[in-house]
Amino acid sequence: MARIQRMGALYFIALIAVSLYLAPSVAHVLEMPNKVGLDRAQYFTVQQIYSGWAMLGIVLNTALIATLALGIWLRKRLRRPAAWAFASFGCLVAGQVIFWVFTFPANRATSNWTQVPANWEALRMQWEYSHASGALLNLAAMATLVLSTLSWSRSLADRDESRGEASDC
Predict the structure, then answer these.
(1) pLDDT of residue 169
(2) Cα–Cα distances in Å, from 38 out to 31, 152, 155?
(3) Interacting residues of 95 by C-beta distance below 8 A, sequence separation 6+
(4) CA-based end-to-end distance of the chain
(5) Which of 65, 81, 135, 155 sits at a 20 to 30 Å CA gap from 118?
(6) CB 89 within 8 Å of CB 166
(7) Rounded CA gap, 19 and 1, in Å?
(8) Residues ≥6 apart with Cβ < 8 Å to 169
(9) What is the pLDDT of residue 167?
(10) Rounded distance, CA 56 to CA 21, Å?
(11) pLDDT for 70-124, tens place per residue?
């Protein structure tokens, strides 16, 4: 029973962390249609609202650790929930690859949108579309984590049913 409670706590942490990490991704996608039409001065002004968002790295690290831990701890006994947890972890990692390959270079080329290089419009599109791609991966991370949770819960119910016990799931 203690193992089930620990696993439930880990699922709770993972679900909260991935949800919190997904929220700003969705915000970027929702802002995108309004931002891409802004002129240079307006766009560079609006970009300053993201100052301090690097703190989301703490949430991301929590999500990465929790989803990886779920996959590792479940892999021998419950392969389906483990596979979904590993998929969630993989989606988060893929989102980070996009960030570091596309988003971060745009931030760097513009000194976090305080300097205006000649190719700023191309950098804007790179930044916006890389965030949209990352948001899709973060949504997939959330979806696969939910599938892992449901699969784990179902395995507990099946176990209890095979023992003739009432399920508390």
Answers:
(1) 47
(2) 11, 46, 51
(3) 25, 133, 134, 137, 138, 141
(4) 13
(5) 135
(6) no
(7) 27
(8) 153, 154, 156, 157, 160
(9) 52
(10) 7
(11) 999 999 889 999 999 999 999 999 999 999 999 999 999 999 999 999 999 999 9
Q: Classify domain 2-162 by CATH number.
A: 1.20.120
As a whole number of angstroms, the distance between CA 78 and CA 151 comes to 9
For the chain, the structural domain boundaries read 2-162
DSSP string, 45-82: HHGGGGTTGGGHHHHHHHHHHHHHHHHHHHTTT-HHHH
What's residue 45's pLDDT? 97
For residue 20, give every residue at least 6 positions away whose Cβ sits within 8 Å of its Cβ, in sequence order, or none.
Answer: 59, 63
Element (H, E) at 106: helix 104-109
Sign of CA dihedral 39, 98, 83, 9: negative
Going by the DSSP 8-state scheme, the letter that residue 101 receives in this structure is I
Confidence (pTM) = 0.89
